[in-house]
Structure formats: C-alpha cells, structure tokens
Amino acid sequence: MTPGKRKVAVVGVSLSDCGRVDDATPYALHAQAARRALADAGMDRSLVDGFASAGLGTLPPVEVAEYLGLRPTWVDSTAVGGATWEVMAAHATDAIAAGHAEAVLLVYGSTARADIKAGRRTGNLSFGARGPLQFEVPYGHTLIAKYAMAARRHMHAYGTTLEQLASVAVQARANAALNPEAMFRDPITVDDVLSGPMIADPFTKLHCCIRSDGGAAVLLAAEEYVRDCRTAPVWVLGTGEHVSHTTMSEWPDFTVSPAAVSGRLAFGRAGIRPEEIDVAEIYDAFTYMTLVTLEDLGFCGKGEGGAFVEKGRLLVRGGELPVNTDGGGLSAQHPGMRGLFLLVEAVRQLRGEAAGRQARRPDGELPRLAVASGTGGWFCSSGTVVLGR
After folding, report:
1. Which of these, 289, 202, 230, 238, lies nearest to 97 by C-alpha position?
2. Angle at CA of residue 242, ends 240 and 247, nearest 5°
3. Maximum CA pair distance of the chain?
4. d(Cα 80, Cα 374) in Å, to the nearest integer?
5. DSSP label of 7
6. For position 1, what pLDDT does the model report?
7. What does pLDDT average to over the chain?
C-alpha cells in the first residue's frame, strides 16, 4: 500500500445458497449473499457507501443497488468476464485507500443452471458478432474451443499431457470431497476424466467446469472500521489487472495468460514472492486454466505446469500449494462468473473458517498469505489479489 494511504481489509464474506437452487431469482441470490456478508462483518447496511456489481440488469450496479436498498456514492460495473471481481476488488481497494469510499460491497448472483433447466436460456454462450469478433465468428469456434486450442498449443510446445491436465480435475474433486457445500464430491480418477465424453478436443466433460446456481458477496472497509467488525480482518496487500486481447489472432502466445502481468503487478505491490503464498484460489473453468495460471503467477516455470500439478501439490491434504480448496469451478460451484467465489474462499482459509477443508502451513499454523486470480473471456483478462492476515 502506498505510504500515507489507508489500509483496506476484507471484513465480511459469504455465499448465497449454491448448487441446485430452483426457487430463487438472481436478484434474490444477490440479496441473500449481501445480507450474509454484512452479518458476517457485523456491519450495518447504512455504512456501505460503495457498491460493485456486474452481469445482471440493464444498468447492473443501479438496479441491483436499488434492489438491495443501497444508495452508494461510489460504484463500479466493470465487466471483464470471470476476472471481474478481482478487478473490482482492486478498484474498491484504491477507492477506499484514497478516501473516496469507506465500505464497498461486491456482490454477484446467477441462476445459470436453473435457467437452462427451466428453458429460460440455452447452454450456448455467445459473445455476439460485432466489432473484432466478426472476423472469427464465421469459423464457428466456441468459447470452449478457444480454450481447447490453447491447451493443445501448450501440449505441443512443452509436452504437457492429457494425464497431467486430468490430474487437475482429480485434485479439485478431492478438495471438494472435504467441502460439504460442494456440488460434486464423489472421487474421480484420471481414467474417469480421460474416458468421459469429448466436449472440445482435448477436453472431455470432467476437464470442464460444472454449471450451478449461486451467489457470493465480499465487503471491504477502511482500517478504521476493522475494530468494530465481528470478524478478524484479512488485509488487501496488493492487486493487479491486465487485459490482452479479444480475438485469438491478437493473442501473441496461447501458452501465456494475462495472469503473467496481473500476478507480477499484484505480487510486486504486495512485496510478496509467489513462494511465500500458502493458498491459491485460481479460476478454473477448464483444467488448462489452472495449469497455465500457476505458471504465469510464478509458482513454476513456463512449460513446467504439467509436472507441477501431477504430483498432488494442489491438494488440501498433503499438497505443497493447496489450490482451489473448496473444489473450484470444476467441482464446487460455477454459476457463470466465479471470480468472487475465489475471494470468499481465500478469506475463509486465512480466517481458519474452512471447516474440513482447512489448509495448514507445514508447521501446522493457519495460512498467512493467499492469492486469488480470476480469468475472463478466453484468457482475455486477469485480475489478481494478494491477501494476508
């Protein structure tokens, strides 16, 4: 944090009901998560003067704030896909540090799964055919196909194997087995992943995130408020954000994600080295996202991600670097844009509130440092937040 500026802490986190939620609207999930986060912090709604939301409504922050009964004087509706919430957390931290806001609520909710089940939408995700995308849409590759092409390039360049990618899904499921809130908890094997139905080569079904309903909320506040909050503070130590491309033709290297920039910025601003991190929460819409983000954040060298993940390093129980300790988007929940869930889980781990999935340092102590790194689009954007207690 820049000298002379206020420190900023996460003082409240929560999830709404998640998984299979057939009887709630997205607005209701926003409200449920927001109420729970305020209760977690022990903070009255009247103290919230900043609000950040994206993905719901014609005027996302205005409509949702009105629904929640908030009248903020600082707002953010940045929308960069799954990285949205880490980027918003960075903006909120800067605003609070500068005195432009006192307490900022970040909130998200989606009924993506229930909507498809009820026929209110299809499973097809289209980003439209305007602007630069018009030059790629005629070729027909989907969002998942773009990730699949990137994974194939990494396999070609560095010898990464399907088994190594599959091990990411296996370890995510093992972590989810410890989380009573996870949507899928039954163990899976590498063979289960490899033998599943093909979705987009090389990704079979279990290489891909699940589809769920759910919401989350995170409350950030200036250091002056911490002493009156119910929970122990988790401090925002450093943040970084980066956008790189929207068309595949403008992506210089399919094996490098924008986390290479956002991570460097976040760690540098925090004064923390990647090897000091105890827990990592990483966006995992697909197994390749976890692998390449670990490389780009500096946990291993470029091209070494396959060897890094295959040795059980990502496990809560016995792993050198517990990753996606709740089971991640591959097994716990993924209602559309999962970045806010990463922050919630990172905070719970640092506060020692992760129940049966609580990670520990080698000395048995609670984690001291965590990183949450979100990815948006097809590696188009990244936001990274370093947290500490």
Report:
1. 238
2. 160
3. 57
4. 10
5. P
6. 43
7. 95
Find the Cα–Cα–Cα–Cα dihedral 66, 67, 68, 72, rounded to 10°: -10
Q: What is the DSSP string of 224-246?
A: HHHTTSSS--EEEEEEEEEE--S
pLDDT at 330: 98
Q: Which amino acid is at 219?
A: L
Is there a contact between 68 and 57 (Cβ–Cβ < 8 Å)? no
**How many CB atoms lie under 10 A from the CB of residue 245?**
16
- Spatial separation of the C-alpha atoms in residues 315 and 128, rounded to whole Å: 38
Q: Whole-model pTM?
A: 0.96
Is cis: bond before 322, omega within 30 of 0? no
Residue with tokens 């925002």: 236
Kindly report the CA angle at 268 between 262 and 270, in degrees rounded to 5?
Answer: 100
Residue 214: helix, strand or coil by DSSP? Answer: strand
CB 264 within 8 A of CB 293: no
Structure tokens at 196: 């599943």
**What are the φ/ψ torsions at residue 103 (nearest 5 degrees)?**
-145, 125
Closest by alpha carbon to 14, among 35, 42, 28, 45?
A: 35
